[in-house]
Amino acid sequence: MKTMLIVSDVAFSPANEGNRKRISDLIEAYEKLGIDVTVILIEGTGNIEEMRKRLGGRLLVCHRSPIERLRILFGRILRFGMGLIGMHRWRNYPLDSWGCKAAQSAVRSLGEGKAFDFVQCQYLYLSACLEVANDNSIKIIDTNDLMSDRWRMFPPDEVPNVWYSLSKRDELVGCRRADVVLAISRTDQRHFNDLGVIGVELCDFIAPPRSLWSPTSRRVIFLGSDNRMNRSGLRWLVEEVLPLVLREAPDFRLSVAGRVAAHFSKHEGIEIVGEFTSLDELFADCRFMLNPVSLGTGLAIKNLDALSRGIPIICTTNAARGIEEFCGRGVAIASNAIDFANLVVDQWRNVDVLNKQSELLGLAYGTAYAASMRRLATIFARADEESAQR
User: What's the CA gap between 33 and 43, in Å, rounded?
Assistant: First the structure.
């Protein structure tokens, strides 16, 4: 059996946010391919008990030092100050400024015996771990997002200082530490190819299909973690779209799930669900999902959560990034508030149309998932062959 070591500062249980769901799906996909996974988890967030149940002794926990934590905090404060005086080019961080020496030491120690076949880090800021991995291991970065000048996505007065952003040069340097660079969407894949990164591979639809849609479902869901993109998207939905919907469908209700719900008080037409532990339970009563986000890169994991369960989605043009192939087969795209509201009203009233869309989506996503798993198996087989020839 092949072995893999994953280094992450993102927990994989409960899988109730996009980055957590991504690593949980990756672990499941690797295990289906016959790969034995060990995880080094930095900071020990999430439900440790549940993660130990899943991996047993193959879950190791380490922590950033007080100095490393202070460095990250100081970096955020510095960038906030630079933003106040208009020096936005200083929004980028040094490549390894969010790293963890304890994780690097663990990778080095674990590689001193029999080398792992694969060593993977989640996000570029942990890529220094690949430099201390055993030379016989194939090194992988799951990029999960684009990091170069990431702050430019936002208006100057809305740049989140807690977000990691790199210069293009540092993004390239980080990627070159790996033999394989996993891109979460075709757009991201093109970005890395244009940047000059070698070994870029697409890894997108890896959430296993499990149809949950039912014609008796009532909820319309917006799902989001507590980040600025989700907050601004939900605000636009509530202020610009919801009044138009309620004018035509007074019985409509929007259920807001995830930590983003904490920023919104009771409002006409809105049910606050808040934090949850089970995506299956959340989507079991979901008629369709809304994704009104207008900022971001990569592939929105909330979209995969819905698509893989046969739940149709209405989304903005930006929110549809990476899932355009499902347009007309479970995905509807609107470019403005009026079109978005019209789609919501139409789907709210027409269960038979939704039923057909869910059926088409199930077939299309099943095909995409099978193709993604074959592609992932080919990536590992090819990397294995190239490693043996070194």
Answer: 28
